[in-house]
Amino acid sequence: MNPAGIGAATVRGDLGEHEERQLAWAYLSRVVLGPCPALTALIDSVGVCEAARAVRERALPPVLRTVTERRRELDTAARDLETIRTRGGRLVTPDDAEWPAWRMLGLAQLTPGRDPDGALPLVFWVRGHRNLSELTEHALAVVGARCSTGYGDRVAGEITGELAARGWTIVSGAAFGIDGTAHRAALTVGGATIAVMACGADRAYPTQHERLIARIAETGLVISEYPPGTFARKHHFLARNRLIAALADGVLVVEAGMRSGARNTVKWARRIGRPALAVPGSVESAASAGCHRMIRDGEAVLVTGTAEVLAETAPSRLPLSTGSKSSEVDRPGGPEARILAALPATGGRWPHDISAMTGLEAAEVRAALVALDMSGAAARGEAGWFRLDRAGEGGE
Amino acid sequence: MNPAGIGAATVRGDLGEHEERQLAWAYLSRVVLGPCPALTALIDSVGVCEAARAVRERALPPVLRTVTERRRELDTAARDLETIRTRGGRLVTPDDAEWPAWRMLGLAQLTPGRDPDGALPLVFWVRGHRNLSELTEHALAVVGARCSTGYGDRVAGEITGELAARGWTIVSGAAFGIDGTAHRAALTVGGATIAVMACGADRAYPTQHERLIARIAETGLVISEYPPGTFARKHHFLARNRLIAALADGVLVVEAGMRSGARNTVKWARRIGRPALAVPGSVESAASAGCHRMIRDGEAVLVTGTAEVLAETAPSRLPLSTGSKSSEVDRPGGPEARILAALPATGGRWPHDISAMTGLEAAEVRAALVALDMSGAAARGEAGWFRLDRAGEGGE
Description:
2 copies of one chain form a homodimer. The first copy, chain A, is α/β, with parallel strands linked by helices. The first copy, chain A, is elongated.
């Protein structure tokens, strides 16, 4: 194969600058197959087209020559771009407006020498119609055990569904177990979800999730830093985890065995300054052992439900309840004050009944209850919601 | 009634000094019915006999006159001492060698003005033959929900039984639920347990636990700072909780509702510098909500089993495993090294099988596994114990 593709095209002069750059990015993505700090540094310094030419002509420092040697003659850029296009996708590069630049800041601030595997992604191969940058504006990563239990699936489904319904994008890895549950819960409520793949964005891994992944691409995004056709390899999963952490406001782990990959995602979250949250469970369940270990070791904060996830992840990013300000609780006649007045101090009352008592919509009641929970004014017990009077400790 | 009891006895000269002082302590215990910092200060300054005389003769500063006025003429000291003796008990005072002075240091260091309810106990009315000071040398307080679940009872029973079998004394409050389970588990393994009562030590509260409390007195201790016959009152429970915390090396909470009294015991533990531990559970269980809240708020450390309780409570107080030093893991041929060699890296193996493979006693295997767990060399999963290789993060 004559590795002249881009250079020749430029000479022909029939390519726009954008297309030329796209070809250069695609070519380099195929050559390095994943993150490559040395190449990113070269692109930063000479531009992507010049970098592609240097790689092709081996006009490189030794370290880059080594990592590019094996595939530098393999210029499938045009074909790769065509492949992703036929799958309803595109190549998103740092040239594009939708490149999630601010999401990548955490990775950008890591020291390449000290964190070679924490490198910035070169590009994102993307399937789906949504804008990657917009879709990750309010996002939560939800990951966990592949061998999840019914408990984990229920909790992941509930929290994920509630957040997705509130406009949060759910980012996960399309794996069996908690990942799949999180994507499905987001889809069920008509919310947005992003699957970050360890294989090419045109492939399905695990293959049993082919339909799920196709559904995600329909309303959300399926993305990968690997070019089309790439098979999932073991080290891809670890690299992929850094992107899951980087693309979200926080990482929630619902069930994780003692040696779960979720812990790796949490490690990334902490390295790039994102909150890491974990749901506790029975100490008799091996599927919760990793969560407990992370909470115990201070790697993750214990959360028991949506309100606490919101409190930890972005306390001031989204309004706490529809159409109300946080001072609502103190304003007589506001929905939260009315709901608070309808709550018993002992026992409990369910949203349906509160709605009937106050004449407020059920959705408004639920949103206000979350805000009241977060502000410590109310809590949910076995018998429903109750008012919390902070004066005494009470009881035995 | 002529309030001349002790004074008259002293005049008669037929009482030894010890008995005279016992009568003075007993008299004052009845007068104040619980902790009284002002009285403790007076005793410290003039001695217990002089303090008793001053109370009886109203030769007191106004604050003490007020709190002693109501019962100062009620001298039932001799009868109270007789009552506790007929129940196989005695009065333990700061005069006695078995007074747990070092256990009371935490309370002694609180500022009486700022922590009026954190006062030192005047005395302990005690049922049982064991020495109070010796019995609290290695002690864990185990408290929790009165409405415990099967899960909570299993976990409390397992941890408590294992610690009691290792020689730890279990301190609790004889209440329904976790308290009762903890006492019973200690008794079952032939271990020591102490019930700290909110009523007189001669009474049973709750009455349904009369047999349990009697069994505790047979092999352990039933103690109270209230004189015989005292009924349990609401404020006694809160005051009693400080003694549960003070008498142990740490407080373990197994299940607690959002407004559980266990949180009050944890508050005391923290104020007097004892570790507070809590067992997580399902976020769907109201009985674990208080534990989660305490872990989340940093009031208690998450623990999942005996090894972690030991690690948090007294890492260097007791040998980690029977007959082995902590360097055993590294010593080839030592029991822990042999057990480690018998553990699989994936899956798991149960103590019974490890015992068969290594030729070690089951008890020795279990003790060594705890040590290996604590040192991070092994962990228990759903399929049994496995070896932990700390090199890689592994997996997805």
